[in-house]
Amino acid sequence: MKCIKCGTDNKLKDRTANQGRCAKCNHPFAFEPTSMSKVRITDPLFAKILSDISVNNTLFFTPKQLFYFLNMRLASKSFSSVFSLVLVYLILSGFVVFWAANITGGNQDIVALILFIFNVIYLFKIFQDSDSRKLNSKSRRANARALQIIAILILGGGIFASILIINSFYAFILSVLMGMVSIYLGTQQLQNSGLSKQEFFFSQNEFENWVNRWRQINGLIVKILPPPREDNTLATFNPDVTAYSFDRLIVCDRATIAQLLIANNFHFENNCAILSITGYPQGIFETMMQMLRRNSDLKVYALHDCSPQGIGLVHHLRTSPKWFQDSNIIIIDIGLTPRQIIAAKRGMFIQSSLESAQAAKKLTGEIRQSLSTDEIEFLESGKFVELESFTPQRLIQILQKRIAGSQNIESGDSGLFLVGDTGNDMYVVESFG
């Protein structure tokens, strides 16, 4: 493992002999992958992840974004291509046949039985991986496709061998059944992989321990954001400033997302106000709302998780006296919505919980009217997707694209496919990402 300070490559014996320190510069290693059980992390890998998520320390990110990003990077390292899965099968099946022929003296029936057992085990393992919540959709699809291809090989090879070599009707039936069932299962997994639920490789406690260990050895992680502060101290504004108003407002369903955008100067670079539905930042919230309500040309962009709570954001903005009750301003729901997740088909980190399913069943009739049957089914199954599953750079790029695409929304030339006829509320159908 290379030292992140001097670049010296330290082998395990070097690290052990130096009590977990670099043999050249004596800098301690934060991680020892050989002592880690399920997930193995090295110092260079963690340093690369911090650099990538912050785009070389130019963007702030939340702890949860780092949690997601580390998981997805580890998931990508465990990816096996269709070619490699099929190649391993061919090599192993050839070895099994050679080994079985040697130990049985060439008894064709026993060799066929041993090969059958091997095929069952190998296909079951691939099927498990195609259905694993630990793997991302790309890996699940690769396993499902490999399941189909191997099934075709078994189908063709089994029929050929059962008729022309061992002359066995039972071998013929078993080959056909195994091949057809595996093709069917592979096809089903391909259809379901896009909206399958996913789990993390590691727990929140493990992640926090790794971050704390890194901080102890290498100092503060400069671009990671602390929890949003609830500062109720009212800020003082110059009267000339309060006479001005933004033409655009982004309302986030959580303070962490509002904090992220503000920390990365999204409001300055895109000339828009940013607030959370919880009133963050508290010190300027009331003054900002007074300024915004005076602007009859204001456009409001709702940015939220794909969850029952997030889906209710637009309705809350439209009906709450604290926000825009009895107002004619345009409110654009830019996501995340279930229809965007469904349209994307893959690439989203979909989670599921009983609490989310219960919350979905309590959605009001007004909110349900804006949702399709598929969307309601998605939410009531407990599925949800968090905005923090996107990196800061990707989230900012998507948000900029959505705002730019809606500049001419009133003229109908927005560049976005919008649906929904709920007054001034509009819903973006284009997939998020």
How would the blueprint of this fold be written?
Elements: H1 12-17, H2 43-53, H3 63-77, H4 82-104, H5 108-130, H6 137-164, H7 169-192, H8 204-218, H9 239-242, E1 248-252, H10 255-263, H11 266-269, E2 273-276, H12 282-293, E3 299-303, H13 308-311, H14 313-319, E4 330-335, H15 338-344, E5 351-352, H16 354-360, H17 365-369, H18 373-380, E6 383-384, H19 392-405, E7 418-422, E8 425-428
Parallel strand pairs: 1-2, 1-3, 3-4, 4-8
Antiparallel strand pairs: 5-6, 7-8
Helix pairs in contact: 2-3, 4-5, 4-6, 5-6, 5-7, 6-7
What would your notes on this structure say?
- The chain is an alpha/beta fold.
- It has three domains: 1-42, no CATH class; 61-224, no CATH class; 239-428, 3-Layer(aba) Sandwich (Dna Topoisomerase Vi A Subunit, Chain: A, domain 2), CATH 3.40.1360.10.
- It has 19 helices and eight strands.
- It has helices spanning 12-17, 43-53, 63-77, 82-104, 108-130, 137-164, 169-192, 204-218, 239-242, 255-263, 266-269, 282-293, 308-311, 313-319, 338-344, 354-360, 365-369, 373-380, 392-405, and strands at residues 248-252, 273-276, 299-303, 330-335, 351-352, 383-384, 418-422, 425-428.
- A six-stranded mixed beta sheet has the order 2-1-3-4-8-7, with helices on both faces. Strands 5-6 form a two-stranded antiparallel sheet.
- Helix 2 (43-53) crosses helix 3 and helix 4 (82-104) packs parallel to helix 6 (137-164).
- It is flat.
- The protein starts with 11 loop residues before the first helix and ends in a 5-residue tail after the last strand.
- The relative contact order is 0.09.
